[in-house]
Design brief:
Blueprint lengths: L5 E12 L2 E13 L4 E5 L6 H9 L6 E10 L2 E2 L5 H10 L1 E4 L3 H4 L6 H10 L6 H15 L15 H12 L6 E5 L7 H18 L2 E6 L2 H7 L2 E6 L2 E7 H6 L4 H8 L46 E5 L2 E4 L6 H8 L2 H11 L11
Parallel strand pairs: 3-8, 3-9, 6-7, 7-8
Antiparallel strand pairs: 1-2, 1-4, 4-5, 9-10, 10-12, 11-12
Helix pairs in contact: 5-6, 6-7
The protein binds adenosine-5'-triphosphate, iron/sulfur cluster and magnesium ion.
Magnesium ion binds next to helix 1.
């Protein structure tokens, strides 16, 4: 078996704030094989973009990797000379950023922006660069006569395609996509994903897709990673995780998914994610978890569920019995009620 193209090993990242450090990533382990699609889901603020930025090496100045490794083609980018990381950027690992509008310079022609990315790595003559940009436009389904337009001349969906073209300009083996279609309507979103999937088959890149939308991961990714409060709480083959979630937070996310023709309303998880500057002791989900027990105030272990499927919870062994209760909205309401208790010990719930 060939080694993974990307391997994140025990990554800890903190943001320095005025009042301390926000523990934005804690003990993140993730390995990605060549050509595979991995979806990363979780609520706002759980660290999805932070993780992608760390892999891309474009963290804000107040971020620091405290521990761990990010191995790309067997080189640890964290300890390597920054030049190595810079070289890997775009040609090895490329990223479609969260906001298409902010990612493009409004006063520069799109061709000039893509040329800049290409010329940072390749010493190509002008004609060859322009031919490549035309080819990229056709590849993502935008008419190549438009390469010299400005960003505002494109619709939202087109702009997103331009960003995909830019990311694929140097044929990177790893593509990071941070909410690539969030601002777009579902039809355009669907078209873009169809094109991305075709491109992935043709070019063979691995994709890390960050999204709030569990449905998108179910449709597009072989593997799913669920994040909560800066940690991966469950990871595994998508079909298996969806059929038998092994972490209560995944159960909650799945309940929140609207289903076509379903008789029941989606249930949202009451409460808010933890304060990353002062996270609770033990399981970070404990304050909202309907199945929390006193032992959940200690760090839950990473437990293997099946090959390639693991979850970080004390009660993975009992999940079969707990799943039916998770489908009942009252279960989650009760958890919200007991979470407001002043008792320092968590009340045994279910
Ligand atoms: N530059 C920063 N300085 C301090 N804290 C930050 C910074 N950037 C992000 N954070 C904090 O780190 C945590 C993770 O943020 P991140 O943007 O990675 O979340 P996310 O999962 O991508 O959320 P969203 O779904 O809203 O995009 C949040 O609590 C956020 O407030
Ligand atoms: S059962 Fe305990 S360890 Fe598992 S998610 Fe709930 S609070 Fe965390
Ligand atoms: Mg984000």
């Amino acid at each position: 078996m060939s080694p993974p193209i990307l391997e994140i090993d025990g990554l800890h990242l903190g943001y320095a704030t005025r009042t301390g450090t926000a523990a934005a990533l804690r003990d993140v382990h993730l390995s990605v094989d060549a050509g595979e699609s991995v979806g990363i889901v979780g609520e706002s603020g759980c660290g999805k973009s932070t993780l992608l930025k760390a892999v891309m090496g474009v963290m804000p100045p107040n971020a620091a990797i405290e521990k761990g490794a990010i191995r790309f083609q067997d080189i640890d980018l964290v300890t390597a000379d920054p030049v190595v990381w810079r070289r890997a950027r775009w040609s090895g690992i490329a990223m479609i950023a969260q906001s298409a509008l902010n990612a493009l310079n409004p006063v520069m022609r799109v061709s000039a922006q893509i040329a800049e990315a290409i010329l940072a790595h390749e010493n190509w003559p002008r004609d060859k660069v322009r031919a490549r940009i035309r080819e990229l436009f056709e590849m993502v389904g935008v008419d190549s006569s438009r390469i010299d337009d400005f960003p505002h001349q494109f619709s939202g969906g087109m702009r997103q395609r331009v960003l995909i073209a830019m990311a694929l300009a140097l044929r990177p083996p790893v593509l990071l996509a941070d909410e690539p279609t969030t601002a777009l309507d579902v039809i355009v979103q669907d078209q873009i994903f169809r094109r991305l999937n075709q491109l992935q088959e043709e070019l063979g890149f691995a994709m890390l897709l960050v999204t709030h939308d569990l449905g998108l991961v179910i449709e597009n990714c072989e593997r799913i990673v669920v994040m909560y409060g800066g940690m991966i709480v469950e990871a595994g083959p998508t079909a298996q995780v969806i059929a038998a979630p092994a972490h209560p937070y995944t159960l909650g996310l799945y309940n929140a998914l609207p289903r076509l023709g379903a008789a029941v309303e989606p249930i949202s998880i009451p409460g808010r994610p933890p304060d990353l500057e002062r996270p609770p002791a033990g399981c970070r989900f404990a304050d909202r978890c309907p199945f929390a027990q006193a032992r959940c105030r200690t760090d839950p272990p990473m437990r293997d569920i099946a090959p390639g499927h693991w979850a970080r919870c004390h009660r993975t062994d009992e999940m079969e019995a707990l799943r039916p209760a998770a489908l009942d909205p009252d279960t989650w309401e009760r958890a919200a009620d007991t979470a407001t208790t002043t008792d320092p010990d968590i009340i045994k719930r279910i």
